[in-house]
Specification:
432 residues; alpha+beta; 2 domains; three-stranded antiparallel sheet; 15 helices; binds zinc ion
């Protein structure tokens, strides 16, 4: 059976709207913040909400400006390579297409998804929600759509793609003349506008406008323990006392409610083990084969970094080394540490462990730089008589490592760290 849960009823006295920390479940009474101020969780230090005025209207304007630029970025020439007496043009989507034509379907699909399809869907869906909301007339499905917009956030990798373009451009400058097309400048414009929209938009404000946060006394509600915060929209929901077999849905966004993410540990372990196993072929197999005047050898990720050092590109070598070698190891070790500590019900340094979780969540997507670079090089150089660049099987293994570790960190529930520590519900958040 599937039912919509109810929000805690308003008590007779004037009570403040409530918000639960999404990382440690501490309950707080919300207070109005001055513009630019941030309310943080006293227990784990997570950002609870930010003081923003006109957040929906400003974000809508920025996203609306990004839309025509995104169309330009996708349809006009992106980069042109002048070599062997011919010009090889490319559009934004050429990378994914070239990988497909080279027989790397899985890799092509992953690149197409994270650099084109998901960013496009997110941009359109966010505008679909924010535009009527700014005019005070939210659509009935707005909450469900906004839930997906938020969920897809880490998977829209336009800014990571831009860094991949930068690395590819530096590598190609030695080989031939590279002309930057209008689509590249439009693409940079889109990234700037999306980042600005991200900075001004306070998701909790959007949720509040769709349906206000439940009100109550945080101390009393915390003590009763029969509540849950929606994982997707952070609405506080009173749970019925005994409901075996009943699936409860959030009254605001309709997401399925859980006190903790289901099978968080088992799922995270399984994904982590799979990612660790793939990390070996990802580093041993060549990620691409570069042939120059008939001579060439397969390149591994490490060989790519060495090549950048040899050509004096130190900052770029450091960037690729960090994103492709350090970050995956850091993620695998960090997640293993978090999972083990929860298994052992450790009470040691929960705040630091939550911070580690935050870092693992944030850095994961940047490892895709190398995959994007390979896609762009394959599209621009392809298989020619003088030079040819083909993707290797290591690239697919590497992309899978990135995706699996991202899925593993999303499966993990940071509130499990705090379950061993016990409850402590502060009434007013911290303002750093
Ligand atoms: Zn917290
Ligand atoms: Zn919800």
């Amino acid at each position: 059976m599937s039912v919509n849960a109810t929000i805690p009823p308003r008590s007779r006295e004037r009570v403040a709207p409530l918000v639960a920390c999404s990382e440690c479940d501490a309950l707080y009474a919300m207070a109005a913040l001055p513009e630019g101020a941030v309310a943080c969780c006293r227990r784990c230090g997570a950002v609870l909400y930010r003081g923003r005025r006109g957040t929906v209207e400003r974000a809508r304007a920025l996203l609306a400006a990004a839309l025509p630029l995104w169309a330009v970025a996708n349809f006009l020439p992106f980069m042109t390579l002048d070599y062997e007496g011919r010009e090889q043009g490319s559009t934004l989507l050429s990378g994914a297409l070239a990988l497909w034509q080279a027989g790397h379907g899985l890799l092509a699909a992953a690149v197409f998804l994270v650099m084109f399809l998901i960013p496009t869907v997110r941009l359109l869906a966010a505008l679909w929600v924010l535009d009527p909301l700014a005019r005070g007339r939210p659509r009935p499905a707005s909450a469900r759509v906004f839930r997906e917009v938020e969920r897809l956030h880490p998977w829209a990798m336009t800014e990571v793609y831009l860094l991949g373009v930068l690395v590819a451009w530096v590598k190609l400058r030695d080989l031939a003349e590279v002309h930057l097309g209008p689509a590249l400048f439009a693409f940079v414009g889109v990234i700037v506008l999306l980042a600005a929209a991200e900075a001004v938009l306070e998701p909790l404000e959007v949720w509040q406008r769709l349906q206000p946060q439940a009100r109550g006394d945080p101390g009393r509600l915390a003590a009763s323990r029969n509540w849950s915060a929606c994982d997707a929209c952070r609405q506080l929901v009173r749970l019925p006392s005994t409901t075996p077999g009943v699936v409860l849905h959030c009254p605001r966004c309709e997401a399925v409610l859980h006190r903790r993410r289901p099978y968080a540990m088992a799922r995270a372990w399984a994904l982590l083990v799979a990612a660790t196993a793939l990390y070996v072929p990802a580093n041993l197999l060549p990620v691409m084969r570069v042939t120059w005047f008939g001579r060439g050898e397969p390149d591994t990720i490490l060989a790519g970094v060495r090549q950048l050092i040899e050509t004096g590109m130190w900052p770029l070598a450091a960037l690729v080394f960090f994103a492709s070698m350090v970050v995956p190891v850091l993620k695998i070790l960090g997640l293993a540490l978090l999972l083990l500590s929860v298994h052992l019900r450790s009470r040691l340094r929960p705040r630091e462990r939550t911070r580690l979780y935050r870092v693992v969540e944030a850095v994961g997507r940047w490892s895709m730089i190398d995959v994007f670079m390979i896609a762009i090089l394959t599209a621009l150089v392809g298989v020619g008589q003088v030079a040819s660049i083909e993707p290797g099987r290591g690239a697919t293994a590497f992309a899978l490592v990135v995706i699996l570790t991202m899925l593993a960190s999303h499966s993990f529930d940071p509130r499990l760290i705090w379950d061993a520590v016990g409850t402590d519900h502060g009434r007013s958040p911290e303002r750093p």
